[in-house]
Amino acid sequence: MKNMRASYFLLLTIFFFCFSANGQIAPVPKTDTIKWHNVITGSSTLNGKTIYEANGVSIDSVKYNLFQKEWKNNPLRKCRPCYLFELNENDRITKEGDFFINIPIGVYKEYFSNGKLKVSGKYKNVYPLTHSDFQMGVPCTGKCTVKDGEWKYYSDKGKLLKTEKYKDGKLLKK
Asked: Do the Cβ atoms of 84 and 119 come closer than 8 Å?
């Protein structure tokens, strides 16, 4: 009878441990989706009137203030990793993909100013995301990440110009 109680107690303990919060595997964190305007802003005064610009294009004060606020909040700090949409001054997507701060680490797409796809491919990490260059946000494409797999290049009209195949950053085939 004592052996049966001990076995029952052991089974209960194992069951409790396996199905309690302590015994569960933590879920994989979801990556955030972040939109960020990659613009250089400036303002000047001409004949007493303030002129606002983003990437050399004239913008209104509302948009200028939005860009300034975005830069102060720096959404890229939260990109560890994230799916990033990089936008221009006209809110058009210029780049998108898997990023860690400002470093492409997976799927990557780049667009022409007319919105047509320019490049699509995938980056592969050379270093783990815990590497100091990743943590500091050092622009290290080609050092931290390399092209891998199929890369496609398009004209501004949407026509496929060429396809390249990479393996660990080395061009295999054009």
From this structure: no
Position 84 in a domain: yes
Asked if residue 19 belongs to a domain, the reply is: no
Q: How far is it, in rounded angstroms, from Cα 86 to Cα 95?
A: 5
DSSP designation for 141: B
Of 127, 73, 129, 123, whose CA–CA distance to 101 is shortest?
129
Q: How many domains does the chain have?
A: 1
Range of the domain at 95: 28-39+79-173
Residue 122 lies in a domain: yes
* pLDDT tens digit at each of 174 positions of the chain: 555 554 444 444 444 444 444 433 333 345 789 998 999 999 999 999 999 999 999 999 999 999 999 989 988 888 888 999 999 999 999 999 999 888 888 999 999 999 999 999 999 988 776 656 555 655 565 577 899 999 999 999 999 999 999 999 999 977
Can you tell me which residue has the tokens 């990743």?
134
Residue 108 located in a structural domain:
yes
Residue 102 burial by Cβ neighbours in a 10 Å radius (0-12, 13-18, 19+): middle
0.90 surpassed by pTM: no
Alpha-carbon distances of 159 from 46, 95, 138, 154, 162, rounded to whole Å: 43, 18, 34, 5, 9
